[in-house]
Amino acid sequence: MGIHRHGRTTIRLALAAGLGIASIGAAPASGATTASGSASAAGTRAPVFAAGRAHAADLAVFTRMRREQARAWERGDSRAYAAAYAPDGDLVNILGEHMHGRQGIAKAIQRHFDRSLKNTRLLELEEHVRFVSPTTAVIVRKGCVLYGGEKACRPDTVSINTSVAVKYAREWLITSFQNTLVHPGGQPPVKPPSTG
């Protein structure tokens, strides 16, 4: 059984540091024209809704999931946040902490919500969605976590994450999520030791 590429949809969004799933707003197909979206808090363009019909319903589900996760994050509700994950899903956060299973994710994330992520929110910057089959999507996002009254990402909080979403009996769930901090200038945080 091979993997078939069913199209590529580029989406602008913002779901940061954490863990979530995507927003919607696809780039137009070649030759298509769309109205521009409004500016977000970070000065990027809001999503433009011009997804192909083949995936429009799926992208709408991703938008709903993303919004529900963002609201759960803001409330510090790890159970609601983890509801987007498959029962046996995996999450690797920016600290390299591996969480397994929806219940394990909820338990670990709640510790973060109660401490270092208390009173934080997610900010969407950009997103790219690629359907590798009718029931599997790879979602790559860039964003950050906002602390207190912050309105824009600090350079030390920007991350890029990758989610693999799988459609189980007509329900999209995240089966795998991995998040990595972006280092300014693309440089590693520590100079590797010299050899020789």
* Poorly predicted runs: 1-51
Could you say what the CATH architecture is? Roll
Q: What strand line-up does the widest sheet have?
A: 1-4-5-6-7-2-3
Relative helix content: 10-25%
**Strand residues, percent:** 25-35%
Radius of gyration equals 17 Å
Organism: Sphaerisporangium dianthi
Keywords: Signal
InterPro entries: NTF2-like_dom_sf (IPR032710), Steroid_delta5-4_isomerase (IPR011944)
Protein name: SgcJ/EcaC family oxidoreductase
Write out key terms for the chains shown:
Nuclear Transport Factor 2, Chain: A, seven-stranded mixed sheet, NTF2-like_dom_sf, SgcJ/EcaC family oxidoreductase
Question: How are the secondary structure elements laid out?
Answer:
Layout: E1 8-11, H1 53-75, H2 78-82, E2 85-92, E3 98-100, H3 102-114, E4 120-133, E5 136-147, E6 159-168, E7 171-181
Parallel strand pairs: 2-7
Antiparallel strand pairs: 1-4, 2-3, 4-5, 5-6, 6-7
Outline of the structure:
This protein is an alpha+beta fold and 196 residues long.
